[in-house]
Amino acid sequence: MFTRLQPVLFVADLDAEIAFYQALGFEIEHRELGFVGLAFEGRILFGLQQRDGATFDVGQPLIWQIGTSDIDAVHERCLQTGLAVHQVPELAAWGEWLMRLRSPNGYQIIIEGERHAH
User: Residues near 25 by Cβ (< 8 Å), separated by ≥ 6?
Assistant: First the structure.
């Protein structure tokens, strides 16, 4: 019955958010005035919607969690593209590796997955 969940994040600076996610390897799949659908490997995963004044802080109600099959590759991409890493990959108690980023609009991004040291 349900086939996907595609959240839309409100952002004050659409271009800065697009650049952040493109640095992680996401691509624009769809664009219209004030909105983009971002994809990875050809599938739309989520949208960004321009909303003036939309800002977030550490008390925000949303934590954006993105799964990966290679956290070391994500960490390396962040270093190569100049994205600030707020927590380097670290082993969580349940056995997955986690790292934390913050988007230009203030969203806390948790990358979670396996580790494949290169």
Answer: 40, 77
Return the closest-CA partner of residue 112 out of 94, 101, 97. Answer: 97
The whole-angstrom distance between residue 49's C-alpha and the CA centroid of its chain comes to: 14
Mean pLDDT, residues 30-57: 87
- The number of distinct structural domains making up the chain is 1
Report the predicted TM-score, pTM, of the whole model to 2 decimal places: 0.82
Residues 6+ apart with CB under 8 A from 90: 97, 98, 99
Structural domain contains residue 53: yes
Domain containing residue 58: CATH number = 3.10.180.10
